[in-house]
């Protein structure tokens, strides 16, 4: 039994490590709120839409719980997303795009998002390399500009 528990714990750590390999973390020089505002402004300036901003800390507070600042920004472009959905509607599970802007236990703020390669490889998308390159460039630029 003890051996099984150790194996399960090791497997759990492995799964967490794998999940993190598919994420990009960009450290921000600003608070979560300021980073969210900057990110939203940049996205809108590029003609994209912000579909939702979800403040997880506010949600936790509503039930009497504490959570460090953690905000999800859901955004995208129907112009860019529609061809992907036409190629494979199941990519709708990963679209619109999302970034998590959060504060860790050291009060450092990060912008975290899934690697586009991971998103696109989960679905059979036409022009896969072109899509990954565009998504990588856009997410990287939005995050860097929001963080500095």
Structure description:
The protein has helices at residues 2-21, 32-45, 56-62, 78-87, 116-121, 128-147, and strands spanning 23-28, 49-55, 70-76, 97-103, 109-114. It is α+β, with helices and mostly antiparallel strands and 148 residues long. It has a single domain, classed as TATA-Binding Protein, CATH 3.30.310.70. Strands 1-5-4-3-2 form a five-stranded antiparallel beta sheet. Helix 2 (32-45) packs across helix 6. The N and C termini lie far apart (51 Å). Mean pLDDT is 88; it is low at 4-18.
- Summing up helix and strand content along with how strands pair, one would put the structural category as alpha+beta
Give the ordered list of helices and strands. Answer: HEHEHEHEEHH
* CATH class category: Alpha Beta
CATH topology: TATA-Binding Protein
Give the strand tally: 5
Mean pLDDT: 88
Assign an overall shape: globular
Counted up, domains total: 1
Low-pLDDT ranges: 4-18
Number of helices: 6
Termini separation: 51 Å
Give the radius of gyration.
17 Å
CATH homologous superfamily placement: TT1751-like domain
* Biggest sheet strand line-up: 1-5-4-3-2
Helix content: 40-55%
Furnish the topology, listing elements before pairings:
Elements (H helix, E strand, L loop, with lengths): L1 H20 L1 E6 L3 H14 L3 E7 H7 L7 E7 L1 H10 L9 E7 L5 E6 L1 H6 L6 H20 L1
Antiparallel strand pairs: 1-5, 2-3, 3-4, 4-5
């Amino acid at each position: 039994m003890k051996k099984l528990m150790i194996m399960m714990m090791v497997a759990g750590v492995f799964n967490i490590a794998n999940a993190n390999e598919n994420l990009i973390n960009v450290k921000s020089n600003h608070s979560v709120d300021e980073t969210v505002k900057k990110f939203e402004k940049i996205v809108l300036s590029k003609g994209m839409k912000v579909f939702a901003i979800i403040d997880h800390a506010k949600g936790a507070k509503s039930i009497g719980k504490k959570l460090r600042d953690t905000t999800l920004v859901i955004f995208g472009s129907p112009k860019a997303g529609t061809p992907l959905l036409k190629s494979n509607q199941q990519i709708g599970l990963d679209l619109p795009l999302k970034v998590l802007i959060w504060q860790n236990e050291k009060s450092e703020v990060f912008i975290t998002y899934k690697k586009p390669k991971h998103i696109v490889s989960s679905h059979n998308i036409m022009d896969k390399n072109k899509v990954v390159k565009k998504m990588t460039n856009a997410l990287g630029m939005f995050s860097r500009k929001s963080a500095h």
